[in-house]
Amino acid sequence: MSIKNYIIIALLSVVIAGVGACNKEDNSLPVNNAPIPRILAFIPENAAPGDLLIIKGLNFSTDPEKNIIKFNQTVVTAELVSDTAITVIVPDLTVKSAGVTVRSNGKISNKKSLNLVKIKKFRDDFDRADIDLVDQSVVPNPIGEDWEIVTGKFALEGNRLATHVGGLESYMLYRAPEVDMKAGNDNYFKLGADITVSGGGSFGGIIFNAQEDNKRFYLLRTSGKMVQLLKTGVSGLGDWAAIMMIENFEGLNDDKKYHVEIISSAAGKFSIKITDPDSNGIIMDRSFTDPTPYMGGVPGLYYFGLANPTNIYFDNFSLELQ
Fold first, then answer.
1. Cβ of 184: how many Cβ atoms within 10 Å?
2. Which residue ranges form the domains of the chain, and what is each CATH number?
3. DSSP classification of residue 195
């Protein structure tokens, strides 16, 4: 091989090596060492289009421009940002839930589902001035504007609803706007209250799915250790369309406060739990099915004062609807 050829080969080797070095340098990319963002929770847990929503999490960018928030494929703008919370306005979507993600500093978070069907919450803790016993003739009802006294007398004492009337079977219903205890087809309800019943055979209880006639409803009531679940007929109390349970339970006693919770997500199917609010111990936890259920309606509170004196108290009434 001639000297000229050696020189040409050597020059080509140098050029190729240089090109390879340039290509290697050109193809190198900056390393993204930013931590991966993570969505932990929504506040509130459920929201409707137009609501303010706080996305709680970790490793969000404090620069609003470096956060891309998506509800499904819809991008929304952050209203407020920090490394642990992003506030947004829920976009106008026609779906019932959306997968929410946050891309911060070029890295994408986990996807967390947000229920877009807003939960309605109603509550009465009776924390207001004392009111002497009143019946349905007193208008407006001083116990509370959303309460309808159907029969009997009720009072407010020491931030509790109370009654001391003996020999009378009585109840009041919570007829607030938007209250309709539907279950099934993405609807559910959760009803709760604290109840204290004096001895001597008196009853105290909670009503649910009360119909417009104020006569047909389900009634869970207790007396001593006994728990009854009853369904009234068209004539109301005493007209028992169904006796769904009568049973004694340890842990229930006279003059002892207990908490009752009733949950239903399917028409005619509901679970009932009675607990001791002082110890959180479960006294009763049962599920029931009614093949011909009452639909919708409102909740209420019930007493039957047989003792002398009668001391029945209600507190921390709550209702959640979707």
1. 14
2. 38-115 (2.60.40.10), 120-321 (2.60.120.560)
3. E
pLDDT band for 6, please (50, 70, 90 cuts). Answer: low
Locus of tokens 């009465």: 124
Say if residues 207 and 191 touch (Cβ distance below 8 Å). no
The letter for the amino acid at 176 is A
CB 222 within 8 Å of CB 258:
yes
Instruction: Please tell me the predicted confidence (pLDDT) of residue 48.
Output: 84
DSSP character at residue 90: P
Asked if residue 217 lies in contact with residue 208, where contact means CB atoms within 8 angstroms, the answer is: yes
Structure letter (DSSP) for residue 35: P
Q: Is 23 exposed, middle or buried (0-12, 13-18, 19+ CB in 10 A)?
A: exposed
For residue 230, CA distances in Å to 2, 7, 220, 222, 299 come to 112, 106, 6, 11, 14
Compute the distance between CA of residue 52 and CA of residue 114 in angstroms, rounded to an integer: 13
CA 139 to mean position of chain CA atoms: 33
Cα gap 146→205, rounded to integer Å? 19
Task: For 253-274, give the DSSP string.
Answer: -TT--EEEEEEEEETTEEEEEE
Q: How confident is the model at residue 47 (pLDDT cuts 50, 70, 90)?
A: confident
pLDDT of res. 18? 53
* DSSP character at residue 32: -
The distance of Cα 42 from the centroid of its chain, to the nearest Å, equals 13
What pTM, to 2 d.p., does this model score? 0.73
Query: By the 8 A CB rule, do 252 and 225 touch?
Result: yes
CA angle, corner 314, sides to 313 and 318, nearest 5? Answer: 175
Structure tokens at 263: 């949950």
Residue 284: CB atoms within 10 Å: 19
Q: What is the CA radius of gyration of the chain?
A: 32
Please report the sign of the dihedral spanned by the C-alpha atoms of residue 77, residue 71, residue 190, residue 239: positive
Rounded Cα gap, residues 239 and 241, in angstroms: 6
